[in-house]
Fold:
Amino acid sequence: MAGYLSVTNNGDQDDRLLGATADFTEAIEMHESSIENDVVRMRKLADGVPIPAGATVEFIPSGKHLMFVSPEPLLEGEVRPVLLTFEGAGEIEVNFNIEQPDDGSEPMDHSTMGHGEGHGEGHGEGHGAGKVNSHGEPEPSSADAKPGMNHSDH
Structure:
């Protein structure tokens, strides 16, 4: 299951998203997908994700995303909190709405895939989003975590 969001740093200093936690999943990893020789590859972002001052970083299906490892069953319409941890801004909670994908992709279980192995375009089984200002409070919005390929912006 993957989570998508946008993180905006309205501060005047760079920050870094170090990780995330949630009660409904064993772990949350940060990954980045890329296409190499017509094959989609995924790698773990073990050092976190830089959030430059004044910039917005998008977590999207074809790029960076949160990977929920061994989540409990999630039902469409539920809202689940995720705690994001930043190097400078500390911890910020954002809510993810559980939704079905609307892009026609087929769900795929990431739990059996090694990082860096090629796999098809349609990955997912959960995606989320919500606005987060990494230097202050979460911006008002809803977040979308979807069993399938989808995202909404934070």
Remarks:
- The domain at 2-145 is CATH 2.60.40.1890 (Immunoglobulin-like).
- The chain has one domain: 2-145.
